[in-house]
Design goal:
The chain is an alpha/beta fold. It has a single domain, classed as Rossmann fold. Helix 5 packs across helix 10. It is globular and about 60 Å long.
Length: about 325
């Protein structure tokens, strides 16, 4: 076990040396966050899911598509890529949203379109619920929203257990994770193959570093509690929301989650893409980019409508009318 711990620590340093950060850093409340920024224009913030990092949106081509018309900021969530995840917090979706909301202020990001994929969708929703002034509109991709059983959660969460988890993530977990990673990626991209651009760009060793294993395990452990904490507040969302999922997603069932969220959030726009799995932004980046453009345009309409209603004696277009227009 000592030999395994030494090897895994060495391998983590080696993979970081071979894959240096390509973005910038901002420190918020003592936590250093890594982010990639491209383009200029109305801001779009991209929040990645589990296993991957902010670079996932670069490898999908989504960053380049959006940067032609937007200021695009893809952020490594705490513990992923080159972002820190200090001890002392469970780093729930709400806690990550709190930190990222402060990062928006530090980076001068005002009312962006926030795009969350998979676990990042939970953070995006918490941002909108708890920090509404920091978010203009939402696009959530292949997210987990309803409280459905996840048999994989207990196994994935094991490295988050104090003491025992620390031993696992420095010894057994990196070796087991490296062996299972090809199958994990295959399931994430199914029914389509893993794209060559992702295979070339994704540093496989990043996902099995002891520090990132801790982040992945904590996210697995807090996924259901995070969804439960926001479940009864989702109906209060009044900003433009676009929900996208692949009909063949093998990680998160789109009927139980994407359609459920659409029924809960008034005026939301549901887009289910056939023959597409969990990594929808890789499979159909042009459709995801179009959904983001739609959310950006609706943000402008929504902002103008709010100004009209607040400045007119008869209230202008009602909130219900605005929601009806979105559908």
């Amino acid at each position: 076990m000592a030999t395994a711990a030494l090897y895994n620590a060495h391998r983590a340093r080696e993979v970081e040396r071979d894959n240096p950060p390509t973005g910038r850093f901002v420190t918020v409340d003592g936590v250093r966050l890594h982010y990639i920024e491209r383009g200029a224009g109305p801001p779009v913030v991209l929040l990645h899911g589990n296993v991957v990092s902010a670079g996932d949106f670069v490898w999908s081509g989504l960053v380049d598509r959006l940067a032609a018309r937007h200021r695009v900021i893809a952020i490594d969530r705490p513990g992923y890529g080159y972002s820190d995840r200090p001890d002392g917090s469970l780093w729930t979706a709400a806690e990550q949203a709190r930190l990222l909301g402060k990062a928006f202020s530090r980076l001068g990001i005002e009312r962006p379109v926030v795009v969350g994929h998979s676990w990042g969708a939970l953070v995006a929703l918490e941002l909108a619920l708890n920090h509404p002034d920091a978010v203009g509109s939402l696009v959530v991709l292949a997210g987990y929203y309803a409280l459905t059983p996840r048999l994989d959660a207990p196994l994935a969460a094991a490295p988050a257990v104090p003491v025992i988890g620390d031993v696992l993530r420095y010894t057994v977990s990196p070796l087991l994770g490296a062996a299972l990673l090809p199958l994990t990626l295959k399931a994430m991209f199914a029914p389509r193959p893993v794209p060559p651009r992702f295979s070339r760009g994704f540093p496989h060793g990043f996902a099995v570093r002891p520090g990132q294993i801790r982040a992945e395990a904590q996210d697995a452990a807090t996924m259901m509690p995070s969804a439960a904490a926001m479940r009864h507040r989702l109906g209060s969302l009044s900003l433009p929301v676009v929900i996208m999922a692949g009909t063949e997603d093998r990680i998160v069932d789109p009927e139980s989650h994407a359609r459920w969220l659409h029924e809960v959030v008034p005026g939301s726009d549901l887009r289910l893409v056939p023959d597409t799995g969990h990594m929808i932004h890789h499979a159909v980046p042009e459709m995801v980019a179009e959904a983001i453009e739609t959310a950006s345009a609706r943000l402008s309409v929504h902002a103008g409508d709010v100004r009209t209603r607040s400045g007119s004696r008869d209230g202008g277009l009602s909130e219900a009318g605005f929601r009806h227009d979105l559908t």
